[in-house]
Write a structure and sequence with these properties.
- By secondary structure, this protein is an alpha+beta fold.
- Helix content is about 30%, strand content about 35%.
- The protein is built from four helices and seven strands; from the N terminus they run E-H-H-E-E-E-H-E-H-E-E.
- The chain has a seven-stranded mixed beta sheet.
- Strand 3 and strand 4 form a beta hairpin.
- The longest helix is centred in the middle third of the chain and has 15 residues.
C-alpha cells in the first residue's frame, strides 16, 4: 500500500527520475526547487510505499482555481491505482482549500489520462493547438467544477 503526502526536497531525486521517464521534455531540478521553495501558489505531493516515491502530482492555486501542472507515475507502478490516488488526493486538497474549479492540459494522444480525468468529472472544453514543444501535438483543455 502507498501513502500520499506533501513533496519534500528529499523526494526530488526520485521525482526527477519519474519525470525523466515520463515526459519527452522533463522539468528540471531547478523548476521543482522553485515550485517547492519559492512558489507560494504551488502544492505538490507524492505517493510513497516503503519510503520509495511511486508518483507525484502538482497544482498551482490561482484565486479559486487549481491548475494541475503535472501528474506522473513510475513506469513500474502504472495501472495500479497510484495516479488515481494522487488525483483523488489533489481533488480533496482543492476542496479543503476552497477551490471551485480544477483545470489541466493533456496530450490529445494520452487516452488513458483523459479517461482518468473524465472519471473524476473533468470535461474537455477546448484545444491548445501545437501545445507540446517536442512534437507540436495538440493539448485538450479539461475543467472540473464547480466543486
Amino acid at each position: 500500500m502507498y501513502k500520499v503526502e506533501p513533496m519534500t526536497l528529499d523526494d526530488l531525486p526520485e521525482v526527477l527520475s519519474i519525470e525523466d521517464e515520463s515526459f519527452p521534455i522533463p522539468w528540471s531540478r531547478s523548476s521543482f526547487l522553485y515550485e517547492l521553495l519559492e512558489n507560494q501558489r504551488a502544492y505538490y505531493c507524492v505517493a510513497k510505499a516503503d519510503g520509495k516515491v511511486l508518483g507525484f502530482i502538482g497544482m498551482w492555486i490561482i484565486f479559486d482555481e487549481g491548475h494541475i501542472t503535472n501528474l506522473a507515475v513510475a513506469a513500474a507502478h502504472r495501472r495500479l491505482g497510484v495516479g488515481r490516488a494522487l488525483l483523488q488526493h489533489l481533488v480533496t486538497e482543492a476542496k479543503i482549500r476552497g477551490l471551485k474549479y480544477l483545470t489541466l492540459e493533456v496530450r490529445a494522444s494520452n487516452y488513458a489520462a483523459q479517461r482518468l480525468y473524465e472519471e473524476f468529472g473533468f470535461v474537455k472544453t477546448g484545444v491548445r493547438p501545437g501545445y507540446y514543444q517536442d512534437n507540436q501535438e495538440d493539448a485538450y483543455i479539461m475543467w472540473k467544477g464547480p466543486m
